[in-house]
Amino acid sequence: MVWIHPGFIYLIGCLLIPLLKGKIRQAYVVLLPIIALADLALMALGFFGDLPLETWEIPFLKYTLMLGHVDNLSLFFGFLFVIVSLAMFVYASHVKEEWQHVSAFLYIGSTLGVVFAGDLFTLLFFWEVMAWASLFLIWYRKTEAAWGAGFRYIMVHSFGGICLFAGVVLQLRATGSIAWGFSSLVDPATHGIELPGIMILIAFMINGAVPPLHAWLSDAYPEATVTGTVFLNAFTTKSAIYVLLRGFTGYEALMWLGAIMAVYGIIYALIVNDIRRVLAYHIISQGGYMVAGIGIGTGLAVGGAIAHALCYTMCKTLLFMSAGAVLAATGTAKMSDLGGLYKSMPKTFWMWMIGAASISGFPLFSVFVSKPLVIESAVFANQPWPWLLLEIASVGTFLCLAVKIPYLTFFERETPKGIKAQDPPINMMAGMGILAVLCIAVAVFPGPMYHMILPAVEGLASEIHTFEHYIAHPYAPKIVVELSMFFLFAFPAFWWVLREPFTHREPKMALDLDWFYRISGQWFIWFCEKPVLSFAKFVDRLTLKIASYFVWFGRNPVEALRIKHLDLRLQLEKNLDVTSDYVRAYESGLEGARQRYPRELPRLSLGASLILILLFLVVYVILYLAG
Amino acid sequence: MVAIDSKTLLKLYYLALVAVVIAGLAVHFMGTAPEAGEVPDLHGEEAAPETEQEEGFWWLEIPLFAAGFAFVGGIILLALSKLGVYPLIKVSEDYYERHNIKKREEQEQKKAGGEQ
After folding, report:
1. B3 CB near a chain A CB, below 8 Å?
2. Which site among B42, B62, B65 would you substitute to test the A interface, given the most A Cβ atoms closer than 10 Å to its Cβ?
3. What is the pLDDT of residues A443-480, one digit of tens each?
4. For chain A, which residues make up each domain, given as ranges?
5. Most B CBs within 10 Å, among A285, A362, A488, to test the B interface
6. What pLDDT is attached to residue B55?
7. Are A465 and B73 inside 8 Å of each other by CB?
8. Do B73 and A392 touch (CB under 8 A)?
9. Which end of chain B, N or C, is less packed with Cβ atoms under 10 Å?
10. d(C-alpha A132, C-alpha A142), whole Å
11. CB-count burial class (<10 Å; 0-12, 13-18, 19+) for A96
12. Where do the structural domains in chain B lie, given as residue ranges?
């Protein structure tokens, strides 16, 4: 049976969307992910051959591109992306702008292209398509803020693309190979990486929103369309996690970066006003767990990171969907403008709470079977500081998403006047419902997920037994009780101690590291437009003036010299206190000479011309020899 | 839909607190960590190696450590973010618009044109 690339189901399938209308289009956008899911299921069942599968090889220059590199890791991420995309398209099926659907399909298709890429050129190609396709999900909001955020988004991603390109070229030069995904870029002996690896890592870190390269995410995602943000949240950062797993598992610096990410993101998530921006910062925080897991590199850490990619993406998408429902219903996602929505949007509230319970890691909710693995791996690896940062970020996640936002958005006060809200239409509720069920199902029955992950972990990590040991007892009483205690005792920290400061709802924004390029970028543009451009204009004018003078002079050099001589004499005589009548007469004579210029050209004899030519030649030779 | 009665919820919360503290103490002192030998054979090959018992950090051995950590950690994190970081970085929502040099120049030009 011929293998079909699931990404191409999206990439080619989307071409028909503009031709379809109404219910048929709605059905079609849901059908495509179902076909892709069936394709993946066939892959998992071995219909296309045993894993690892290497197929869709295309000759390109003197290399061979491999579009289909399917192993346990790529298959797992393929399932992750296709399953969440199915729920997303159910949620977004009501969107009337067909090109918004097209860009979403191109975005997801190219993400799957990245996942199944078996060489660096293919990876680079789909990496770029992913950035450009996702841009339109931001611009489709059609606001000035969205336009600006989209522009900054693509600038940052273009820089990332350049880094990746540089890394690919350097890697090709160093190894002569474009192979990707078969071995780590981290040197197993020194645990270091070479320059090509550093360039590739920077590109991956940009997409993974690893601080200080993260600000594009919290800047752009909240400005996208209601459904656009839902799509954006899942693919760019998680595909970055996937490529980090492939290339940099066990690179210790990532453990520290991940731990810092987790706390950095949660601090911002706790203080920003816009719910979608809260969630955007929280992507950074949760990405930190996965990045830290990759950095720790043991079986438990890597397995936890992979499991977290699935569990967390499902519940974060559910949260973005709920926030989108609030935005669609009320016209705002700012907590300073919201409150008391429980009465009018109870179903949305419960969907939010399922997402919040899942992302916090409540027992029987999705993240319970993923995040604790990464935190526990820091204990096994004897890393107290990363453990502390990851643990404290966990407390923050619960307080932020399960306590603060529901309280301020759905309760605390009456809905402000002018805001009329109701639960979203059926398709949006259905999209949320699918993910809510999955969030619980994956936690109640984590076995299939763990067994899919295990072969992938074996190929990537050390100390596999740590993972095997943990997944044998994910609901060990110690873990369940400790986590329950964790949440129950974190709650009073907000409710009884520090609730009051958070109820001061200020329509403010928090500055982040994008300040540097947003402000300095403006000054740079101003510097280019004002001083540099003014200087360029001045040079331009001066050059033209000199050129026109030489043209004027060249018409009749003898007469021109006479006019200049007269001009000089006039200036001199003016200064020598000569009578004004004389000067006036002289001036009119000079004016006449200027008007008559260039007159009839003096005719030189052949000999005089030769002498002049020789003279010029001698001057030229002297200048040449002197130079 | 579920009617939320805050008093009932609070009572339930206290009950849960007591229950979880008792459970936490029980788990701590009775020790319910799974035996290494219980690890199932996941490969269909050899049994998983004898897993060394988690050594952990010394503070994890303190009874009810998770409870204290969550409460104190929560307060520190909330205070740090809202009372420490936020006042330093908060700006009005039109901050970047106000600092948009082009717009500012356009406004100044308009103003100058109006005055003339």
Report:
1. no
2. B42
3. 999 999 999 999 999 989 988 999 999 999 999 999 99
4. 1-192+204-248, 256-512, 519-555, 556-627
5. A488
6. 64
7. no
8. yes
9. C
10. 17
11. exposed
12. 1-63, 64-116
